[in-house]
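Students often ask why we bother encoding 3D structure as a string. The short answer is that it lets us treat folding as translation between two languages. Here is a chain of 86 residues written in the first language.
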Amino acid sequence: MVYMGKLLMLREEDDARILKLKRRLKAKSKAEVVRVALDILERQESRAEKILRWKRAAAIVAANGSSREFQAEFGADIRDYLARLP
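And here it is in the second language, the structure alphabet:
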């Protein structure tokens, strides 16, 4: 038995948009179009998360007076600290 995956219910307008993108991207299937779209969305979300962490880190540096003071306080663990920022 061939497993075809999960069904996805689409509105007619969405199906038409996927078919249009399929032709423009020269994709082999509608599923490939959806995968490409998901990849793009995941990259955008990852970038947005990084920007938020950078802004928080910049605020911490600004509050501590200088990046030298900040680095002296956190030392080599700076990357780990920044990665843990909410």
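Translate back mentally: The mean pLDDT is 83. Keep this in mind for the problem set.
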